[in-house]
Design brief:
Blueprint lengths: L1 H12 L7 E3 L8 E3 L12 E3 L5 E2 L3 E3 L5
Antiparallel strand pairs: 1-5, 2-3, 3-4
Length: about 70
Amino acid sequence: MGFMRDVREALKSTKRRPPSKIYCPRCGSAAIHTSFRNDIFLVTKQYVCDDCKYSGPLIMELEKEKE
C-alpha cells in the first residue's frame, strides 16, 4: 500500500494548468497541429506545421507569466 500512497501524493502535488499556446520550433507559427495517423499508444505525438511543413515531436509552449 505504500506505493499507492506515494502515487496518490504525487498526483496531489501536481498543479493543474490550463492548456498553453503551442508554436512551431522552426518558424514560430501557431498554425501547428497533431498528426493523428502516427498517434498510437506508446508512440510520441508528432506535430505538423501548416506554414513551414515542420514535422516532429518537439514544439514550443508558452505560458503566461504571473504578475
